Amino acid sequence: MQAISKRVGHQYLTPSSSISSLKSIYPVCDHYYGADRPKYGSTLATKGVGHLVRKGTGGRSSVSGIVAAVFGSTGFLGRYLVQQLAKMGSQVLVPFRGSEDSHRHLKLMGDLGQIVPMKYNPRDEDSIKAVMAKANVVINLIGRDYETRNFSFEEVNHSMAEQLATISKEHGGIMRFIQVSCLGASSSSPSRFLRAKAAAEEAVLRELPEATVLRPAVLIGTEDRILNRWAFFAKKYGFLPLIGDGSTKIQPVYVVDVAGAIVAALKDDGSSMGKVYELGGPEVFTVHQLAELMFETIREWPHYVKVPLPIAKAIAAPREILLNKVPFPLPNPEIFNRDQILAQATDTVVSENSLTFSDLGLVPHKLKGYPVEFLIQYRKGGPNYGSTVSERVSPDAWP
């Protein structure tokens, strides 16, 4: 009897049988990263995710068939993209490298088990592979418009994107790769941030020619990094500095529209694969006009201080010089970000012959109204302050 039990036990503990049983439970592991998997050529599907099996009515409790690894999902654009993916019944893998609080707000956006936080290290290839192991879609939102002591422009905006594309190429089960870049990205730009974004686009398309590249303009929304900063500065100091004369043209876009464009590109029949889209809002503003819209919304009288470009760069220079020379982290730049100052020296608008929202079947929102309504929090007398004539009279008009 003991001999029989030993033989049976030995049979179930042999490497071949144990590995085959694991393959039956997790069939993707050996297929994606097995030794027999050739690491040559792109493996992206040619027809997008249109053939995925879908179950349910299409809401949060349904199954869209999409398992998306969204790198950079804890950022500004990430929360809106995760919400839209979860709303259609997709499973979203949320890589994070900070504390447990960094992804807590995303857990509520999907059904039970649909939002999966996964701790990873962007400098550890194995941890990135662990995030991608069960994914069939990869979306890269990683980006930063200022440098820190630990991460340079080139590493965050270029090297990480190239690494994600390389791993996706070796994966074998990734059907779509979407790279979110930045409007104005160019190898000849005076901004290192925009040059790094352009290099990332080139690297991603070199590794995965079927990847989709989206270039959104300045994002506007509740957590944005332009109108919020302007309004806070104006409330605190009573004026807003304008770099140059404020005549630079920009084409800001509502963040929800950009998230919708990513989902639209993801859901199509593959027509967006291998293409570059420039996503700008329906209106072109000068920096001065956008600041006027901000002051109008917070119901404050506009006060500006025009800062010539050389002086603005001189004000921002000390942080750039001391960044890697002091043994402690420096505060993040708000208004006077040297790289952004260089980027704003030229107009940043959608090109004439580029693919835009209309090619994805979308119409972007105008900014005036709901997209900038979050600025009412800066009104000094509450949301209704300034609605009467007496509150709108300029103090200079009194005798």
UniProtKB/TrEMBL annotation:
Residue spans making up a coiled coil are none
Span of domain NAD-dependent epimerase/dehydratase: 69-280
Q: Name one GO molecular function term.
A: protein-containing complex binding
Query: Where does the source fall among the domains of life?
Result: Eukaryota
**Pfam families xrefs:** Epimerase
Give any Gene Ontology cellular component: mitochondrion
What residue intervals traverse the membrane? none
SUPFAM superfamilies given for it? NAD(P)-binding Rossmann-fold domains (SSF51735)
Q: What is this protein called?
A: NADH dehydrogenase [ubiquinone] 1 alpha subcomplex subunit 9, mitochondrial
- Please tell me the species this chain comes from: Prunus avium (Cherry)
Q: Which gene encodes it?
A: LOC110771335
